[in-house]
């Protein structure tokens, strides 16, 4: 069952949710009247401040809003995952990977708490329902109040790779070295500036503004609000050149850097809840090893998609060629040859046809003809002869790349 996959695989980004949410915090930080009057600071100094932040404890509430410019995927997801987010056997799922996909669209309120690397809690509130992911020492719990189901795994936090335990071998040793490296990597393709100040969750913050210098990228800007005192990022917004609502717009509405009470991370399964125990050794579905599960995924998402799209997935039919990367920086495009003619959407299952039609625009050029499948950030061109070009670039940039390849 999906619930028995090794929880730590999904907990890593969320098991440090308090620190991670603060470190890649979410929502635009736009200057307005009443913004704090902070000392001037350069972009390099602000990046150094972020790198020097040693925030280990916090609790807070933040909202996440996502708008990829996609049609509703609810019905499509149900057609593959089972109605209502159920697992393969028809039971409601507590799988973190499945339930956290609800953050892909809409607006959601989350509560987060962290006390160092071994205790974190993330709760997604959805009306009167809630989904909680709790890491407390060697115990990992996932609880879905709607289905009253619990997933528990013992020992999930004891075998984390070194990089997940906070060891930073190979990374710049000082905040200044880190800032120098960031600015060096940005090079001529990126503008990094300080865009004023803001008040975020009652705290004074600087705004770091990152913009592509290149034309053709779908990214208009990335803005990060950084706590002026601690250097902890509090808000983040990703805006598209298409305008409208930000692609990702979320941020702390309340934050406290004090140490949460130990009881915050305690969990006891509610009365009557169904509890599924993980093995602590990896996916336990039918006794499969991680290698077996990986092969199943390759089969499912290679052969499965190959069947859906008529073999138009690299490696799905053994005829595709390897992937190449063209361009640089914000206008990088990945391209590969599927070795098969592009599928027609009317050949796809009925529940998928409308979704694909709403995403696709027919295009023509020196390369011939094809379809651009679009979102507000990532676009993909599939030519009628089976070549694919994909990147965080505009539709025209994909067409230009396909034309240049002829």
Question: Can you give me a brief rundown of this structure?
Answer:
The protein has helices spanning 8-15, 17-23, 43-52, 74-81, 96-99, 175-186, 290-308, 350-359, 395-404, and strands at residues 57-66, 106-115, 119-126, 129-136, 139-144, 149-154, 190-200, 203-212, 219-227, 233-240, 248-256, 274-277, 324-326, 333-337, 360-365, 368-374, 379-383, 387-391.
What does this structure look like?
By secondary structure, this protein is α+β, with helices and mostly antiparallel strands. It folds into 2 domains: 276 residues, Lipoprotein localisation LolA/LolB/LppX (outer membrane lipoprotein receptor (LolB), chain A, Clam); 116 residues, TATA-Binding Protein, CATH 3.30.310. The protein contains 9 helices and 18 strands. It has a 12-stranded mixed β-sheet with strand order 7-8-9-10-11-1-2-3-4-5-6-12. Strands 13-14-18-17-16-15 form a 6-stranded antiparallel β-sheet. A hairpin with a 2-residue loop joins β7 and β8. The longest helix has 19 residues. The N and C termini lie far apart (47 Å). The N terminus is likely disordered.
């Amino acid at each position: 069952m999906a619930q028995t996959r090794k929880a730590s695989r999904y907990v890593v980004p969320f098991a440090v949710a308090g620190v991670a949410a603060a470190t890649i915090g979410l929502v635009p930080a736009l200057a307005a009247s009443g913004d704090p009057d902070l000392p001037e600071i350069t972009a390099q100094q602000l990046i150094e401040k972020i790198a020097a932040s040693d925030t280990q404890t916090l609790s807070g509430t933040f909202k996440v809003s996502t708008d990829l410019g996609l049609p509703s995927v609810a019905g499509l997801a149900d057609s593959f995952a089972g109605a209502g987010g159920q697992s393969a056997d028809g039971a409601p799922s507590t799988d973190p990977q499945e339930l956290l996909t609800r953050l892909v669209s809409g607006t959601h309120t989350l509560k987060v708490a962290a006390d160092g690397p071994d205790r974190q809690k993330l709760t997604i509130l959805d009306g009167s329902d809630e989904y909680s992911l709790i890491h407390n020492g060697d115990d990992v719990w996932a609880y879905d109040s709607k289905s009253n189901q619990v997933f528990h795994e013992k020992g999930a936090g004891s075998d984390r790779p070194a990089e997940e335990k906070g060891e930073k071998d190979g990374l710049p040793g000082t905040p200044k070295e880190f800032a120098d490296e960031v600015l060096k990597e940005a090079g001529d393709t990126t503008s990094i500036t300080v865009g004023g100040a803001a008040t975020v969750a009652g705290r004074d913050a600087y705004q770091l503004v990152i913009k592509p210098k290149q034309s053709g990228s779908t990214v208009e800007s990335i803005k990060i609000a950084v706590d002026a005192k601690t250097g902890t990022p509090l808000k983040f917004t990703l805006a598209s050149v298409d305008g409208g609502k930000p692609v990702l717009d979320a941020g702390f509405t309340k934050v406290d850097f004090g140490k949460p009470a130990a009881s915050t991370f305690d969990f006891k399964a509610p009365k009557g809840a169904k509890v599924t125990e993980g093995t602590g050794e990896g996916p336990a579905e039918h006794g499969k090893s991680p290698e077996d599960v990986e092969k199943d995924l390759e089969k499912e998402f290679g052969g499965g998609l190959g069947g859906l799209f008529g073999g138009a997935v690299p490696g799905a039919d053994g005829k595709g060629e390897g992937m190449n990367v063209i361009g640089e920086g914000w206008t990088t495009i990945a391209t590969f040859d599927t070795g098969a003619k592009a599928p027609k959407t009317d050949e796809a299952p009925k529940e998928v046809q409308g979704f694909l039609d709403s995403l696709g625009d027919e295009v023509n050029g020196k390369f011939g003809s094809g379809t651009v499948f679009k979102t507000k950030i990532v676009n993909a061109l599939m030519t009628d002869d089976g070549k694919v070009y994909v990147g965080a670039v505009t539709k025209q940039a994909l067409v230009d790349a396909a034309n240049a390849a002829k």
